[in-house]
Amino acid sequence: MVSAKGSPGVTTSALAVASQWPRRVLVLEADPFGGDIGAGLGGGEWPSASGLADAVVDLRSTGLDEALRRRVHRPAPHAPPILAGLGCVGQASSVAWTQLGAALGRMPGADTVADCGRFAVLDGVTPLLRGCDVVVLVVGSGLRAVRAGSRIAPLLREELNAEPGDVRVSLLVVGPDEPYSTSEIAAGCRLPLLGELPRDRRAADVWSDGVPPARAFDRSPLQRGANRIAAKLVRAGTAGAGAA
Ligand SMILES: Nc1ncnc2c1ncn2[C@@H]1O[C@H](COP(=O)(O)OP(=O)(O)OP(=O)(O)O)[C@@H](O)[C@H]1O
Ligand SMILES: [Mg+2]
């Protein structure tokens, strides 16, 4: 999942969708501008030796299974397993994204949902995006969000060699109708619509800020929407091999 601009909710959506994944799943926090999950969902109590930076070092001397066993953390029962992101801006260029993505794609019976942050042509994680079965552009529904999405969409299609309409580059709208509808946004971005997630402040705070889930959290609009998106992504991704 990537954004064009303006923090539409990539991290929140990736965590919510992964929490509803019908198969084994890993969240890879691959935001090139640095990770937020340890501070947000993790409440700043993320184990210090967990995360992508340490996994990258491990991978020089050991296999993926062992690196993930050491560095993946599941902060709460409602959360998916997570390889938390980088601490510094600029570290992303030292990660062998192509190899990491390929190794994750080969995990038997498991998928990866990657939070790739804001799409940046030069400093971003384009090699990782190229290896994904599905790239999801996450956008809000305001004027600036839609404009930014429509500028980024052709670049994403180009990276994946996807023709307009190819579901390998799809659109996820967070908070539709503020004021543009999902169909208007899909037409503006010329991307197939994966779906939408509702604005749901209370449930979103669980993922972005580590607020403890309320009793009805599982039935919240965000979690129910995430469940539908997870099912659609699994269907779209089974044509390929493993990473969403
Ligand atoms: N579906 C939603 N409903 C209501 N609020 C949301 C939703 N999704 C995200 N938010 C809120 O929007 C804010 C930004 O969310 P988030 O950090 O997930 O965005 P992001 O796109 O990952 O941003 P960044 O590019 O800074 O990493 C957070 O306060 C989060 O709680
Ligand atoms: Mg984020």
Protein topology:
Blueprint: E1 2-3, H1 10-19, E2 24-29, H2 52-58, H3 64-71, E3 82-83, H4 97-105, E4 110-115, H5 126-130, E5 135-139, H6 143-159, E6 169-174, H7 182-189, E7 193-197, H8 201-209, H9 221-237
The structure holds adenosine-5'-triphosphate and magnesium ion.
Keywords:
single chain; binds magnesium ion; alpha/beta; four-stranded parallel sheet; Rossmann fold; 7 strands; binds adenosine-5'-triphosphate; 244 residues; 9 helices; three-stranded parallel sheet
Bound molecules: adenosine-5'-triphosphate, magnesium ion
- Looking at how many chains there are and whether they match, the oligomeric state comes to single chain
Order of helices and strands: EHEHHEHEHEHEHEHH
CATH fold naming: Rossmann fold
> What strand order characterises the main sheet?
1-5-6-7
Work out the helix count: 9
Spans of 5+ residues with little confidence (pLDDT < 50)? none
CATH superfamily caption: P-loop containing nucleotide triphosphate hydrolases
* Class per helix and strand makeup: alpha/beta
Could you tell me the mean pLDDT? Answer: 94
- Rg over C-alpha atoms, rounded to the nearest angstrom: 17 Å
Shape: globular
Architecture, CATH level 2?
Answer: 3-Layer(aba) Sandwich
Name the helicity range. 25-40%
Tally of individual domains: 1
Q: In the CATH hierarchy, what is the class?
A: Alpha Beta
Through-space gap between termini: 8 Å
Query: How many strands appear in the DSSP assignment?
Result: 7
Strand content: 5-15%
Task: Please outline the major beta sheet.
Answer: 4 strands, parallel
